[in-house]
Amino acid sequence: MCGIVSVIQKNWNATINYSAGRMFKQMLFADALRGTDGTGMFWMDTKKNQVLYNKVPKPSWEAIPQLSELNTLSGVSNWVVGHNRKSTMGVHTYENTHPFHEGHIVLVHNGTLSNQWELEKETGKCAVDSQVITKLLAKNKPKQALEKLEGAYALVWYNTNESKLYYARNKERPLWLVESDQYYFLVSEAELAHWIAARNDIEIIKTTEVPVGKIYSLMVNKNNKLHTNVTNFTPKEKKAIEYGYYDETYGYYNRSCQVPQLYAKKAGPEKWFTLGDTVTFSLISTFMINGVLKLRGRTVDKPVYQVEAIAENNSMVTQKFGTVMEGIITNIKFAFNSWTIECESVLPQIAPYQTEDGLLITDRILNQIDTKKCVACDANPPNDYDNAHIYFNVKTQEHEFLCPTCNKLNLSGDINKYGTI
Predict the structure, then answer these.
(1) Preceding peptide of 142 cis, ω within 30°
(2) Rounded to whole angstroms, how far apart are CA atoms 19 and 9?
(3) C-alpha distances out from residue 68 to 41, 51, 53, 54, Å
(4) What's the rounded Cα separation, in Å, for the pair 261 and 299?
(5) What domains sit in the chain, N to C, each tagged with a CATH number?
(6) Would the pLDDT of 241 be above 70?
(7) pTM value?
(8) Cβ atoms 156, 177 nearer than 8 A
(9) How far is 257 from 69, CA to CA, in rounded Å?
């Protein structure tokens, strides 16, 4: 989880006073309980009439001395938003620390998306899911962008083109609006705001949990008063991991198909993987836990599952996004509504073949196919698989192939191709 804190002046013609500025600094410090992998903030500088941001990939107690702007908010800004990061993907770098900036959007995010890879078809590849959200909001209206998200999120962002401060959430993450006479405090934990407010002699008059399915935007109206607009949206229901479905003639795996959680849980990765087996995965991110480098990725040669691996040494932190890795499976677990394959003894691996659409045909797949015959002509496996057609049959739960000759004659029938080399 991550944490969001903020101070918003109700009268945008006025600026945050010393007491409220000190309260924000203290909230940002204490909010490290929700995340210690990065600390950041963005704010409106009324003198420059622009939104500025700063961030440090360190816990709040180390980052705050480097965030010098915390000492100059009083008399300068009419609102400020802070974030404490708890990483779920991506290394601890300046680029992966919140806030994120894309075009006219500056954003902080608490949560984790489960459909990042699907959304990257529109945004391009991103190191972390929060960057995906920022790019979506830069390209789409807020309602359109949020209705594409699947997973968990509480969001606060500013649109410089509209001069509006937005916030919204789904049911998977908290967000509270705590109110005093002069200020709104938009926070992940209401109790944190109550505690810090009491320490600064600021009386709280109202506390409201931000409703799910509503996008709020704050802006100054013609009378120079803060005005709130509300737009309804329909959050996507949280779905299960990616899995396959059956064709009437052939069973085949479809990457875009997702099924109810009950069925997905019954059909986990143990159908394809066993302890001590080798798993091939594509690297998504690296992160450190107690001095140990860990890798996170997704499988490339079976239905897609998340992989977490212990690196052989810390030099692997230099491995690039998308690198194909191979490790020995030590555990298969189901938690937080998804399956994870854990492994160790990880090394980079080069797949001998790759399909036209970029799917990797690994040694694991080839070893399985080498024991079979062409499904159309019953021919033995060829010496190489150039121009062969390889697909995954969900009914048999195995990979099968059409030899190059049958594939050239288009004898695949109604088989939905898993990949053509």
Answers:
(1) no
(2) 12
(3) 11, 16, 11, 9
(4) 19
(5) 3-232 (3.60.20.10), 265-349 (2.40.50.140), 351-421 (no CATH)
(6) no
(7) 0.61
(8) no
(9) 47
242/238 Cα distance (integer angstroms): 12
Q: Which CA distances in Å does 97 have to 93, 149, 166, 286?
A: 6, 20, 20, 14
Enter the DSSP assignment of 145.
H
Q: Is 411 exposed, middle or buried (0-12, 13-18, 19+ CB in 10 A)?
A: middle
Contact 364, 280 (CB under 8 A): yes
Question: Would you state the structure tokens that stand for residue 372, as one six-digit string?
Answer: 């079979």
Side chain identity, residue 137: L
Strand 306-310, strand 338-348: pairing: parallel
Question: What average pLDDT score do residues 401-413 get?
Answer: 68
Give the total residue count for the chain: 421
Q: Mean pLDDT lowest for which of 19-33, 198-212, 353-367?
A: 353-367
Contacts of 412 (CB under 8 A, 6+ apart): 376, 389, 402, 406
Rounded Cα distance between 186 and 274, Å, is: 46
301-352 residue pLDDT tens: 556 778 888 887 777 777 777 777 888 888 888 765 567 888 887 777 655 5
Judge contact between 233 and 217, C-beta under 8 A.
no
Q: Give the span between the Cα atoms of 1 and 169, in whole angstroms.
A: 14
pLDDT tens per residue, range 252-290: 233 333 332 322 333 456 666 778 877 888 787 787 777
DSSP assignment string, 323-334:
-EEEEEEEEEEE
Task: Report the amino acid identity of residue 412.
Answer: S
SS (HEC) of 74-129:
CCCCCEEEEEEECCCCCCCCCCCCCCEEECCEEEEEECCECCHHHHHHHHCCCCCH
CA separation for the pair 381, 126 (Å, rounded):
39
Residue 249 contacts residue 416 (beta carbons within 8 Å): no
Q: Under 8 Å CB-to-CB from 336, ≥6 apart: which residues?
A: none
From 321, 385, 400, select the one nearest 353 (Cα to Cα).
385
Structure tokens at 25: 């600094």
